[in-house]
Amino acid sequence: MSEHNRESLAGRAKAGLDRVDAVQQEHKSLSVPVAVVKKFLEDQSTNLASMIAFWAFFSIFPLFLVLITLLGFFVPDNLKTDVLGHVSQMLPLLDPSTMQGFGGSVWALVLGLVTALWSGIAVVRATQTAFNSVWELPFHARPSLPEQIGRSLLVLVTIGLGLVVSTLISGFVSSGTDLLNLGWLGRILGYAVAIVLDIGLFVAAFRILTDRDISTRDVLPGAVLSGVLFWVLQTLSSLIISRYLQNAQNTYGTFATVITLLWWFYLQSIITLLGAQLNVVLKDRLHPRALVGAPETDADHRAYESYAEERAYHEQERVDTEFPPEQRR
Question: Which pLDDT score is estimated for 209?
Answer without folding.
Answer: 92
